[in-house]
Amino acid sequence: MKINIPDHRTKKPWAIMALIFVGVIILPSMALAEETPVLNSGDTAWMLTATALVLFMTIPGLSLFYGGMVRSKNILSVLMQCFAITSLMTLLWVLYAYSIAFGGDGPYWGGLSKMFLVGVGVDSLSGTIPETVFMTFQMTFAIITPALMVGAFAERMKFSAMLIFMTIWMTLVYAPICHWVWGSGGWLGNKGILDFAGGTVVHINAGVAGLVAAIVLGKRKGYPTTAMPPHNLGYTLIGVSMLWVGWFGFNAGSELAADGVAGMAMAVTQIATATAALSWMFIEWVKHGRPSVLGIASGAVAGLVAITPASGAVGPMGAIAIGLASGAGCFIASTSLKRAMGYDDSLDVFGIHAVGGIIGAILTGVFCAESLGGAGFGGDINSIGDQITVQALGVGATMFYTGIISFIILKALDGIMGLRVTDDDESEGLDLSQHGERGYII
Question: Per residue in 114-128, pLDDT tens?
Fold first, then answer.
């Protein structure tokens, strides 16, 4: 009997072709589709909100915080400086600074490929949000960082010199350091540094540059023998309240998405800020016998600063520890250290922002550990010691670079045009001498 055995040989070519089609065409296409960024409307809506919150931190938050602490004859000068910096940094960011920070993947700067926002259009994306939104969000960071410095040299710097200094400083200092940490290929980012929302990029950077500016300019006329009390602490408390609310955009927005990490960043921001405010208040209460409005406001800012680098990496208990440490550390730096060193940092930019940023950056390396409730280490780092080493490297590099370059810029400008107003103008107040207006009623 003849047995019919099916012959599959004629079907093999089709099977092979089918496998080739699936392997070469379908699977790679599926993988490509998975990797292609897709706009997420929820993330976009949150980032639009976060961007507005961070801008709100500078105008009017920081402006009122600083404006209330200076003497009444200088309030308009501080408000004007913050407002002008907001406008100036916006243009510089669009023209070339965004490109230096985020335009390429070099280790030290991003190049000029995105000058004038070339390629940043309606359809370009950064992750799950429009690149225009990412660009504007980062612009608000570029605005507040130089604005923070205003408090260090308040009441004595020429307005014209301030504008030129800020322009050069943004170009040579802020934009490159921003790329080191957050830009594609940045050398500190590649080493695994954890700086979620700007402990090094914003606060240490601004705090050290502010201290250098205060020293180069010299002390205010009459300091420290003449009393120079804040003229309106109500403005200061309103300003710090605005900063506190706006900081949720600063920290939670740095996740660039509406997700669990953003939620935890918001939670630890609130916890650390409240803890630091109470920490400063109680230390001052014990030392001086009374709790002050200026003290609790300063403590809150210290906590906001210190939790900034850690907000995407630590848990609630880490936030409490960072809040306690920053409240105490910034109190000491703004009182005892400042008196011992003899510098005139008018509104304690170094004592709060640089010292708070350093405390936060180093403690991020501790409390990011999963065993301590954190989200884990950065890059290929696998121990607290190694993470602290990288954090310390970032702190040291930022302090060294911004200190040296800021000093060079300031000394050059002082030689060319002079940095400081005349003694008569300083006595009259910068509101009248620099802007021809009064911010108060005699």
Answer: 999 999 999 999 999
